[in-house]
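Why does this matter for the project? Reviewers at the last site visit asked to see concrete outputs rather than summary tables. In response, this paragraph embeds two records directly. Each consists of the residue sequence and, immediately after it, the corresponding structure tokens. Nothing has been edited or filtered.
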Amino acid sequence: MSFPSAARHPAARVLLLTGPSGSGKSSLAARTGLPVLRLDDFYKEGTDPTLPQLPDGGGADWDSPLSWDADAALAAVAALCHEGRAAVPVYDIGASARTGSADVTLDGAALFVAEGIFAAEVIDRCRAAGLLADALCLRGRPTTTFRRRLLRDVRESRKPVPYLIRRGLRLLRTERSVVARQTALGAHPCARPEALARIAAARTAGPGGAAPGADGPSEERGSPVRAAGRK
């Protein structure tokens, strides 16, 4: 896709925040006090014929990047960087459907966070367009992530409990490969304290600069593997 005013220097830059489902992306983004773009709102709807399917016939594979509209998410990132405002969908994960739309505005901020399980999928395109401040992948103990994710999903009634347990165990087994893939795509793997430090560095750099790692892929790279998501 082409970016609006691609040759013009952006007024703001994006910090892409990814990590396994339940790793604490949303709470960390909120803690920064920066404007936040929720990339999970760009999931495809449950009726979309292009949704990837689980190999066992268990329905849509919401943990595949193909279940996510990367082009629409990227357009919203570009609009925020160049115009400071973007109209975005509001997505109901329990219903697997978009329920409306909302405006995200930066109110003059030179940096914002775009967080979601598939954020790493657009790192290269954001960097090529000069929009990227940094890209981080939150990582921790898989057992902690499993517990946090299950409690959240049950509390929010995202899916039936048996489904959530089956999916949670599958993601527990694949969490390290998820981090490896996101790292291979260019996200810097780190725990919360380092993530906060890098976000602070990106804020200091401003729209004309970049935090460490924003101009190229992370030093810690692994082999691309099948992605797992947050849905």
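We now turn to the second protein, recorded in exactly the same manner.
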Amino acid sequence: MKIIMLGAPGAGKGTQAKKLSEKYGIPHISTGDIFRANIKNNTELGQKAKGYMDAGQLVPDELVVDLVVDRIKEQDCFKGFILDGFPRTIPQAEALDYALNNQNEKIDYAINVDVPDENIINRMGGRRACVGCGATYHVVNMPPKKEGICDHCGEKLVLREDDKPETVKKRLQVYHDQTKPLIEYYDKKGSLLTVDGTLDINVVFEKITKVLG
């Protein structure tokens, strides 16, 4: 089962990807993890990616696709995989399809976790992160036992720059411009599954697994 997670930043696709990974015993792969692993292991592709990142440039599509294809050829992806944060653009999706076609494979499902912008701005504005251990909380949905203090290490909790409303709005704009067209792309291929991401996490998961079987 080869799955792609789609949805705006903060829609909850990462949470669903983790739950699906546990249920089906297939790896949850994020591009960030792939970059970190390749840079840490000093691979040829990792060195190339690091060169762009150190220069403050975006890693080119070709290189990102090479890194992803390299990763999904590994043994633990034999039964399938869940891609989270890739592809982000139509050219990346086309390049991934081309690479999979060469192996006589294809994406089975593109799962779109659909959440309105307004909900995402409110949701992310309520997030708090620990400056010590990095644990995350939400002021409404998952508050710490003591306000502003981490349950695990006792350090203070902060609203990250990434989660501030003005930053979230910019990230959503980039999503609508670059990534949202992927919904139509996978819909035309007949592999799109859209779920209402405003529902309870477990209800969303139930709806996805009902289709996946």
